[in-house]
# Entry
Amino acid sequence: MWCSMSVMTTQEIHKAKRRSGWAGVAGVAVALGATELFAGMSDSVPSAISAIGTYVIDASPSWLKTFAISTFGTADKAVLAVSIFVVSLLIGWFLGKASAGRAWPIVSGFVVAGIIGIAAQMTQPGVGVPASVASTMMAMGIGIVAWYSIKLWADPARMDTVTADDVPDIARRRLMLGLAGAATVTVVAIGIGRGKIRGRAEAQRAALTLPEPVEIEIDPTAIHDFDLGGVAPIVVGNATFYRIDTALVVPTIDPQEWTLTVEGMVDNEVVLTYDDIAAMPLVERYATLSCVSNEVGGRLVGNALWTGVFLRDILAMAGVQPGAEQVVGRSIDGWTSGFPVEMAFDDRDAMLVIGMNREVLPANHGFPARLVVPGLYGYVSATKWITEIELTTWDAFDGYWIPRGWSKEGPIKTQSRIDRPRDRAKVEAGPYTLGGVAWAPTRGVELVEVRIGDGPWQVADLSESLSENSWIQWKLDTELSEGEHIISVRATDGTGFTQGGQETPPAPDGAEGWHTIRVKAETA
# Structure
């Protein structure tokens, strides 16, 4: 009898720990949801998840960031946010189990989490210290209450009015209901919070109208865009244009409060408002941007029509001093880039832009203003949400990615890609039109060649370029016999350089190699 009671007692202890563990998961989820809700309710309270995520991004080694971008692409931030959420829930599970018979482990965990969240929030721009501290600690308190309430409500020992045989089922149902309620509260809170954050940014942007440029580019026609199914459009829409940056949540910036400061090795420090820039003579320019992490054949590249002012005109207002060698861009979230001063003044037409594809610059792509420097990878030039431009020497400063192992100079390499068909696709044997894109900003693409199997390189038809900084489309009408085919593409730019076949990884200065796919042609 004693042994039987001992075993039963042990089982009950394990059950109590599991209940407390699940209650801990619920408490953490509700607390995280509350932090997002509070962030949405006040523009001076940063998202705790985003603030911690930003710290994780900054602290992560370069190889891990490269892996995340190459593996998850533009979904890397969502994956990081979900990972932070899942890890937090796991911690809640273990602390909840440890708190089955005593509250101090999970209470201490919430206090530590609150301190970490506050510390991360303090690194964010525009943070309101009292509001952030109060809201974060309130969210932790809500989490503790959620944990304790679910733990008690599902405790069989507190069901004196229930028939003994029904206690296990009722306890289980109560736990499930408590978890479902916590999940609902969490989803609703996060949804409302994130929605309000996005809503603030969009409301500010929607109130603006992009001024008419003094220089207007032509619209693409059939000679610029083959309109071939599966091939990327010659101008990529704002919603589908790739996004790679270190901001876990897009910064919410009031254009009426935003300013751009030009300082450093200049004759006069210049401070410009959004209205100042919008009142300047605006120009349109087509330019292809690419992320240095783009793999051979990757999708982290796109072409758009940008509206703004020439960077050289902005710098001329300040007066660049002799000896200045580097233009440093600083984002509101602390991200930095740097490129040679001469590239702001040459004929590549580096720009400070406020418009994208004839719309006010989207928040995801840098609203209210960003830099676009054709011919340079984004990591050394394309500062989004820019607030400061500094002129300095080449050795005096390294941008965000340079200490993390990437090259300080980042010219975009000549590249080409097969879009039609996709790798491992099955196509109908017989006549087939291959297609894709090629780019070499500032140099232009002169030739694209395609090879099928071990056959000769065949010259593809090229679309007419919108500009020397814009990518082009290519197509090749061919005949695919039944069976498997290996297809490769290479481009030659305006300097006569032809892509080599040796494939190299993106680090430290961009990928190289021929994009090669394998397809199977079948008889219908």
Summary: DSSP finds ten helices and 19 strands in the chain. Residues 10-205 form one domain.
